[in-house]
Amino acid sequence: MKPDLPTRAARADGPDIARVAEGEPAPLTLPRLPASGAPPVPPARTLLLAGLGAGLAILALCLLARATDTVLLMAPFGASAVLLFALPDAPLSQPRAVIGGHMVATAVGLLVAQALGTGPFAMALAVGLAVTAMLLTRTTHAPAGADPLLVMLTGQGWAFLATPVGAGALLLVLAAWLCHRAMGTARYPRYWY
After folding, report:
1. Domain boundaries, the chain
2. For 9-32, how does the pLDDT look when each residue is reduced to its tens digit (9 = 90+)?
3. Residue 152: exposed, middle, or buried by beta-carbon count in 10 A (0-12, 13-18, 19+)?
4. CB-CB contact of 91 with 138 (8 Å)
């Protein structure tokens, strides 16, 4: 006597209808996700190289920072790495946006902190002004929207604009350029300025 095995309900358009009709158990399948407007999952090679590239770029920044005793890394660079390696063709991933966006947003945060302090109203105003300034300068880079908050929450001064912001953003873009060239994954950047 065979044990009872789970079977799939017979569907008129299913490929296993003959086997199910004969009583043979149908193979188990995962439920299908509902239809989505989200883009399809990239090929395995793209997934692997994007993750590897992002990890190597952050590792390079960490090692260079340690070797030079310079701060080159900040949390928003993790989000920048997502754009640089997962969406290298996006306008928000281009050098002008990455470097310019971080510089503009950080400068706005520093100016607002100097003028108004670091209270809730000042933080909200700084992020809003940073978004506006990035749009005006055509340097919109979503991860840079966190820079004014980082400046205010950690009490940074103007030196923060040079390192880690300016130097780190530039090195991150250069790492993306080198990785994409070495891996042959994308023609990055689409434009420098």
Report:
1. 49-183
2. 444 444 545 555 566 666 666 566
3. buried
4. no
pLDDT digits (tens, 9 = 90+) for 123-164: 999 999 999 999 999 999 999 999 999 999 999 999 999 999
Amino acid making up residue 108: V
Contacts for 161 with CB less than 8 Å, ≥ 6 apart: 103, 106, 107, 110
Please choose, from the candidates 192, 164, 191, 193, the residue with its C-alpha nearest in 3D space to the C-alpha of residue 76: 164
> Cα separation of 120 and 111, whole Å?
15
Cα–Cα distance, 23 to 21 (Å, whole number): 5
